[in-house]
């Protein structure tokens, strides 16, 4: 890691922690006022956009890559923010957070901040490390330039899966004739979680862009952690726990891949 700009990275990561702390504090106050804390899902994508902007402005690395990363994160994050806002507007608390707070012993401010908002903020900071490190690295060349191209392509695949999957599910649910049915068409016939798969691809693509210059590759734990959350922790696994109780879902599980898109079984 010789030649790494530690002072530049220190400035970027400190500013990232500050904007995330402010964002999570404001989100907590909004959640407290409206009586539900799933509003934190709305600011999940927004937090990464803010970090990407801070990194682009304060970083002293390759300007083209800094602003490329910002644009990619902004497109992904702002779409996700709007989607989560429209999805949760006018609805009650997410059962995930109700169960989490029940296990923690209540919804006192200290418990809520520790279990939800502090955890989310730290997760945002850790997952966004590739953005922060990339902002202080020099230009990519040779194999590194190829990694940037592959990263952008993987990001495109991820955004397509995530946005198309969300749109297909929204359209399916909006049709009254589908009430009580299991969504198993379109991308949902190839994977039970196209949105989570797409999300994972986005962050592996951003990591590839960061890995185009050493030591960006050492931030590999960030997409690993993101993928773990999407597959095993707060994402697909938790959703499957509740969905498996619905009629028709066990059969859907038998014929459709869990995470990676695969041709549906008969």
TrEMBL record:
Keyword hit for rRNA-binding: no
Transmembrane segments: 6-30, 37-58, 64-82, 143-161, 196-214
Pfam family, one: DUF1295
An annotated GO cellular component: membrane
Key words, A-Z: Membrane, Transmembrane, Transmembrane helix
Gene3D superfamilies, per the entry: 1.20.120.1630
Protein name: Steroid 5-alpha reductase family enzyme
